[in-house]
Amino acid sequence: MLRTTTLVILCFGFLFSAQAQKKRELLENIGELETTITTLNDSLSKVTRKVNASESRATLLEQENQELRDANQTLLQNLTSFSKVSKQSTETVNKALASLKEKEQQMRIITDTFSRNDSTAIVILTQAKQTLGPEAKIGVSNGDVLISNSLDFLFGGDTATEITEEAAAFLTKVGEIIIANPDRAIRVEGLNITGEFDLTYKQVVSVALGLTAAEGLSADRLQLLARDGNFKEGIIIRFATNSDAFYDMLKTEFK
């Protein structure tokens, strides 16, 4: 009986010892698993943080790329606008320069015309003095050359209308000067201080006939005029600048 009891006790002892051993092994396995789980959790946390960081970085990079794309688009639009404005400005400047050049050309034409008229006036003045002599009454006014003489010299008196022989020779020489200057408009002006314009006009006609005595001078070149002399009387033969031709030239150049 004792032996049986002892055997039972030993059996239970072995049994308990085996269970204890298994329990320790189980606890050790549980500990190892918990360590492994902790390690895995740490690794997972690190990976998760890296993934989150990468996603955040990727998001920032995408934002930066979008901002760069937007900036580039804006820059391209600005460059396009600047190019258009620059082109328009260049066209405006070119048009302004062309207009300025045209105006300068027009002013040069006017200046050259005035200079040419002044030069022509000097030539006519020289011709008149050489042809008519130093005693001839010759002057220049606003580019016009004036050849004048008294009524006594031309007609022998204030109320006469027939030119004298001396005046006829004088007028023929003036007619030759007129023929030598076809670009000038010729006006025969009678100056009157009494108001008797009919008499003055007859005297103007007589002077015009004396001028046409020069061979080749047509009466069509002469303009006849009787006007108030403002305290002066006599006949003026005016070599005037051809204003009609001048204005026709301006219309042609400035149209």
Summarize the structure.
With 255 residues, the protein is α+β, with helices and mostly antiparallel strands. 69% of the residues lie in helices and 14% in strands. The chain has a domain at 121-253: OmpA-like domain (60s Ribosomal Protein L30, Chain: A), CATH 3.30.1330.60.
Describe the structure.
The chain has a domain at 121-253: 2-Layer Sandwich (60s Ribosomal Protein L30, Chain: A). It starts with a helix and ends with a helix. The protein has a five-stranded mixed sheet. With 255 residues, it is α+β, with helices and mostly antiparallel strands. Helix 1 (2-132) runs antiparallel to helix 3 (165-179). The chain is rod-shaped. It has helices at residues 2-132, 151-155, 165-179, 197-211, 243-253; strands spanning 137-141, 144-149, 184-192, 222-228, 234-241.
Strand order of the largest sheet: 1-2-5-3-4
Structural class, by secondary structure, is: alpha+beta
Distance between the termini: 152 Å
Radius of gyration of CA atoms, rounded to a whole number: 61 Å
Number of E strands: 5
The arrangement of helices and strands along the chain is: HEEHHEHEEH
Helix content: 55-70%
Per the principal axes of the C-alpha atoms, what is the gross shape? rod-shaped
Q: Biggest sheet, in brief?
A: 5 strands, mixed
